[in-house]
Design goal:
This protein is an alpha/beta fold. It has helices at about 20-35, 35-45, 65-75, 85-100, 135-145; strands at about 55-60, 80-85, 105-110, 120-130, 150-160, 165-170. Bound molecules: S-adenosylmethionine.
């Protein structure tokens, strides 16, 4: 990944008609349920060490396919924020949240490389299958670290060209 590289087609979904965006949303749901992705996500989330009642941000949240897991961690008194540039995905995430009656989750459009959030705001921040679509990874990881409080966890899951999962605790 180079410093010059921006988002690939995933960063341009706002220019697509709604049908293919909804179709990709179904694929995200199916992928999130696959044991390999589910296990990697749950392992990273557990290692962020976010307490019950804490706050988690998913950068590049898509349609919120994994957000039942986030609610399982923070519980009803915690706080969840999802940020993604794709308007159709943010609308789907809000609908999913409404259907489940999750009142402690908020979704907004934004770029992982310039998160519209305050420094040290969250106990944990993660991204899942996003870095490959929105380079440079260094800019994304720097932003994720910036909005995580010292002692909080930053995690990333990636799947191409190699699969890796990496939770880190922010030291300063
Ligand atoms: C493969 S999907 C993964 C979505 C979600 N994390 C999941 O696991 O279901 C990639 C996501 O990255 C988002 N994306 C693309 N460019 C981005 C950027 N610059 N900042 C944040 N998200 C971005 C896309 O809109 C899409 O939702």
């Amino acid at each position: 990944m180079t410093e010059e590289w921006g988002s690939d087609f995933f960063g341009g979904l706002n220019y697509f008609p709604p049908e293919p965006v909804a179709g990709i949303g179904h694929i995200l749901d199916a992928m999130a349920a696959l044991p390999a992705f589910r296990d990697a996500r749950q392992w990273v989330l557990a290692n962020l060490r976010v307490p019950s009642g804490g706050s988690i941000l998913e950068a590049g949240c898509g349609n919120g396919a994994s957000h039942a897991d986030l609610h399982g961690i923070v519980g009803p008194s915690g706080r969840i924020v999802g940020i993604d540039p794709t308007v159709g995905f943010i609308e789907s995430a809000r609908n999913r949240s409404k259907q489940h009656g999750w009142t402690n989750a908020a979704y907004e459009t934004g770029d992982i490389r310039k998160l519209p959030r305050k420094e040290n705001e969250f106990d944990g921040v993660f991204c899942d299958k996003v870095l490959i679509h929105a380079g440079p990874a260094s800019a994304a990881l720097r932003e994720m670290s910036r909005v995580t409080r010292p002692g909080g966890g930053v995690g990333a899951i990636e799947w191409l060209p190699f699969s890796w999962s990496a939770p880190q605790i922010r030291s300063r």
